[in-house]
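Q: Can I see a sequence and its folded structure?
A: Here is a first one.
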Amino acid sequence: MNNIPTVAELLRMKGISHLPPETILNYFKILTDYCYDHPDSCQQEMRHWKNWLEQVERKMRNHSLAYYYYFYESHYWTIRNMVSKKEENDWNNLNQERIISSLRKSFVSMAQIKDGDYIPEMMEQILSNIGTTLSEMGRFIESIRYFQMILNNNRNFNMAWGNRGVCLFRLAQNIADNGERYVLLKTARVCFDKVKQDHIVTEYNNREFKRIASIADSELQKIPNHIKDRYRKLSTDIGTSDKREKEYRMWALNCRLFLNVLGDAGIVDEAASDNLCPFKSLRKENNYYQKFDGFFNHLIEQFSTARWFYYDGAKLDPKKQHYAEKRIYYQDLGDRSINTLSKEKIFASFRTCYSIFDKVAFYLNEYFELGISNNMEINLRKLWYKDYSKNKQLRRSVQKHLENPHLKALYWLSKDVYYNERDEELVEPAAREWNKIRNHLTHQFIRVTPTGWDQSYQLDDPASYCISYDDLKDRCLRMLQLVRDTLIYLSLAVTYEEYRHDAAEKPYFGYLNIQLSDEMKKKLKDKE
């Protein structure tokens, strides 16, 4: 572009959709730079920018579309957030909602680019911004996964090291068990030690990382030596001689699918278990806690079952016939539909995941006394609002808990789960497809085809949804990870609430969490 227009010249343009994508992107960059430099006086430019966004989205492809979502749509909502003076603790921050949605769209667009045109540096920036934005929403458990994705491919991405350390530190601050706190703080400290100031990590960032590292050092000194000795050298070898069990546990560790916060710090044997349990004080009768312990036990049971169903189904080769599939005669539709035991196990896992979301909503309504009397109206998407169908005003009972950061995380996570036509924007662009899969699994029909098979041939029937086998596995695995994070946030939200009520009188445990070991469970079964 020889003649670079001024901002004033851009504002006189009525439309830009007829221009080449490269020119459009350059025009967006001019507006972006101006608005970042003048956040208090760029209202006219912002209106013009929004008008452009509505014109050109369909024109963009491949690189242009990824750049569009990342550099321009997400930056538009970031600047609008600055202009409107929205705070991070504002639960109904629609600008924040659109920022993360744009970043995720950019991630999907970049992931679809072929190897020769793929830009790893841009993907790293997208992942970093997604992780940072989720952390601002209180969803720091998920942020750790995004920063780790960067570090798996680029160990020299300093900002990812620092931000991963911050998230691990925040997680440690919310954990009561000293052993787990020790591991998380030590891992955070390792992350901070790897940070070096560069063109991304500014002097301010570096100073902030060092400040948090200093606090982590102080917290580590408070942990008793006998606990440090026990957790100092955790084994990376899974403690079982059963080869099949070891393979299963290593797979779950690599996918971060155990209900154990140590899994967010790394792969160690101690993390290969589901030991999640909310803290309980003595502020109410023991029967009260038995009720919620029973709820939580059921959630753990359902999640571990869904995890196993997925693993057992996904490891089976759909091309090989299981003995339970023999002598079953299907009609030949000519579309190579997969009718296997492995597919049905993955279906069962997906359905179970959605049922867990509903049960978490029920738990929240009961524990936080949100006042929803009709159990049929309880789901994780509608739970927060006084009248979901008319407006998005939070319930008064929810507003009493706005200071609970983990409840806020669940609120934002709920936007990833359910889809409704009334929603203008979705935090998770894949939510529509997740909901479509769920509805067809539960109420209609779904056809699974081999990966790479031409899906242009489909039955002309809206009641039948078509998806490839690999896409089905990917969707279900993502759903399992989301459920795992949901249950951790639930545990942290309850723990926060118990401490809030109990802090004035009993700053430490007033109720012993009794968990059944494998040996204890075996003894109980033998007595039956």
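Q: Show me another, different protein.
A: A second, unrelated one:
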Amino acid sequence: MLSCSNIEIFLRENNPHLTLLFLPPYSQNLNMIERIWRGLKENVLESGYHETIDHLMNLIYQFTESSNQNPKMIISHI
């Protein structure tokens, strides 16, 4: 398995023009789509019992349609 130091050495030796950038660990509170998923979860998935998959899919569709028609709702989740 390659370690970061092995990769850095490889890049230095094979292409000194490339720079290895380290990204921060995953942080879902900074990821905007995760906030929208949370809104979907709170408004649809946790809203009660869904007797059929069709009923659940219809509620998800309604959530996305109302989100598209009212961008302020999405912004409120972000």
